[in-house]
């Protein structure tokens, strides 16, 4: 059972609401959350062992029941593998929206090496059914 405090749209900062969250939330690390068109998107660091999608995304319509709906990448992008071949996962995503695009900043590194970096990926929408989704 997980709880987090949030200020929903239309509430003042003085009136936080605590949500009981359930569903595909176990092991979510480094969460970052944003809403688009009535859907909340939770970005996080993957916690699975072995090969897996990178920066999984969970979706909810009411901030309580979550399901894994996609991931930012199917695997480590080729350019990161070239620059930091020992990187095993991407981590600490941070989502924001400005200038008409969603921006996901994230980190990569190889443990104990000086090959760390920050990267950015953008998209016009988070809605996978939109023709603007890439």
What brief labels describe this structure?
134 residues; mainly beta; 6-stranded mixed sheet; 50% strand
| Beta strands, count | 9
Q: Mean of the pLDDT scores?
A: 85
Question: What does the main sheet amount to?
Answer: 6 strands, mixed
> What is the topology, as strand order, of the major beta sheet?
1-2-6-5-4-3
Proportion of strand residues: over 45%
The ordered string of helix (H) and strand (E) elements is EEEEEEHEEE
Poorly predicted runs are none
**Rg estimate, integer Å:** 16 Å
Structural class: mainly beta
Report how far apart the termini are. 34 Å
Give the overall form.
globular
Tell me what the structure shows.
It is globular and about 45 Å long. The longest helix has 6 residues, at 78-83. Strands 1-2-6-5-4-3 form a six-stranded mixed sheet, with no helix packed on it. It has a three-stranded antiparallel sheet with strand order 7-8-9, with no helix packed on it. The N and C termini lie far apart (34 Å). The protein contains one helix and nine strands, in the order ββββββαβββ. It has one helix at residues 78-83, and strands at residues 2-6, 17-23, 29-36, 39-45, 54-60, 65-73, 90-98, 101-108, 117-123. The mean pLDDT is 85.
Helix-strand layout with pairing:
Elements (H helix, E strand, L loop, with lengths): L1 E5 L10 E7 L5 E8 L2 E7 L8 E7 L4 E9 L4 H6 L6 E9 L2 E8 L8 E7 L11
Parallel strand pairs: 2-6
Antiparallel strand pairs: 1-2, 3-4, 4-5, 5-6, 7-8, 8-9
């Amino acid at each position: 059972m997980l709880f987090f405090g949030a200020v929903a749209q239309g509430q003042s900062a003085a009136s936080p609401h605590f949500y009981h969250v359930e569903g595909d939330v176990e092991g979510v690390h480094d969460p970052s959350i944003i809403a688009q068109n009535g859907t909340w998107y939770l970005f996080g660091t993957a916690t699975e062992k072995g090969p897996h999608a990178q920066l999984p995304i969970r979706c909810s319509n009411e901030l309580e029941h979550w399901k894994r709906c996609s991931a930012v990448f199917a695997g480590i992008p080729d350019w990161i593998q070239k620059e930091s071949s020992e990187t095993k996962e991407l981590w600490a995503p941070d989502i924001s929206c400005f200038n008409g695009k969603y921006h996901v900043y994230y980190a990569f590194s190889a443990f104990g090496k000086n090959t760390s970096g920050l990267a950015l990926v953008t998209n016009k929408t988070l809605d996978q059914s939109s023709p603007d989704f890439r």
